[in-house]
Amino acid sequence: MxxxxxxxxxxxxSIDETAEFYRMLGFELTHHxxxxxxxxxxxREDWQLHFFGIxxxxxxxxxxxxxxxxxxxxxxxxxxxxxxxxxxxxxxxSGIPRMTRPRKRANTGNMAGFSVTDxxxxxxxxxxxxxxxxxxxxxxxxxxxxxVKAIVLGExxxxxxxxxxxxxxxxxxxxxxxxxxxLVEALVYRxxxxxxxxxxxxxxxxxxxxxxxxxxxxxxxxxxxxxxTAADLARQLADQS
Length: 241
Description:
2,3-Dihydroxybiphenyl 1,2-Dioxygenase, domain 1
């Protein structure tokens, strides 16, 4: 039998807040009801997400999640990022709601996924339909190898404290040995984790450290995405000051 369709049904604390958030990402509201129960349906091309309202929902404790496989995670991320910047003047990289940037993870083969956490704490995990055949060079330094592990902890397992712990330990011992590009990538991710955990002074110190790193034009091109994330972190930090 073919033609089956599965639609994620996720909790939300406010159907109106949820609809506004997903509209920002390019979704359309296709169904809205308040009685007998709050319920909305959001659609973006062939992609549908449905939500039911729970007034007492705690976004921090919400474990609602789903996997979405798309043809091009990079193009989708750019579209979502443009919507966020149009609505907020920045990319939301910490707190709730937020969005991570595509990163390849050791526990997902060679696929660069990202996640969107909505205002109710639901995590939409987005991956490419096909594994990327272009293999990245393995990290050249201990710090680069630690970053690979930290991303798995912070993104796939949601264990930011442990990701911070192993990054800090390696940064303290091996930062000077790492190539500039790997150091930038590690510090940007560490700054992202710091802001996610509410450590604003730590975030500011890490951003200053990133700015002080000397990069060649080739290096700067290689870490362009990380530097863009650092700029978004700086804007979000300024807004919270």
